[in-house]
Amino acid sequence: MSGRLDSAQPYALGLFRVVIGLLFACHGAMSLFGAFGGVDGDGGTAQAGAWPNWYAAVIELVGGTLVLLGLGTRAAAFVSSGAMAYAYFKVHQPEALWPIENHGEGAALYCWAMFLLVFTGSGAFGVDRLLARRASAQKPAAEQTPVTA
After folding, report:
1. What does the alpha-carbon distance between residue 89 and residue 109 come to, in Å, rounded to a whole number?
2. pTM over 0.70
3. Three-state SS for 88?
4. Using CA atoms, how far apart are residues 149 and 134, in angstroms rounded to an integer?
5. Strand pairing partners for 44?
6. Which residues, 6 or more positions from 123, have their beta carbon under 8 angstroms from its beta carbon?
7. Helical ranges in the chain per DSSP H
8. 111 with 85: CB under 8 angstroms?
9. Distance of CA 97 to CAs 45, 71, 111, Å?
10. Cα–Cα–Cα angle for 3, 5, 9, nearest 5°?
11. pLDDT tens figures, 82-96
12. What's 149's DSSP letter?
């Protein structure tokens, strides 16, 4: 059973990346464009250039889209994870110690989900994997090194 689950790991990771990226990008779209009810539930947006809300929204939209596509996944996830760590410690944590008390569950979960993607990469279905496959196909056979487990 473990072998079957291990063989599906890149696909599960790819689906995880797609879902996290889509949800994260939706937060950015909500703040920047007033989508999904906006920041106030009435279609409101973050004021352009306002620190930290507008900058966080740009990171959410761009970072989430890149993670969704699997393009530059590790770098986009690193920046996104840092933005959510900042959001948690500067916005939520001063209100109360625990995320359930300070309404910081989303920031904490996104922070750790993106941090995981920094180490795992894009998994299946990502543009990163497609580009890596093309690059290795263009290398002469003498330059390719075998991969060992």
Report:
1. 13
2. yes
3. helix
4. 22
5. 38
6. 9, 10, 11, 12, 13, 14, 15, 16, 17, 70, 129
7. 2-33, 53-69, 73-86, 99-102, 105-120, 127-138
8. yes
9. 29, 35, 17
10. 115
11. 999 999 999 999 999
12. -
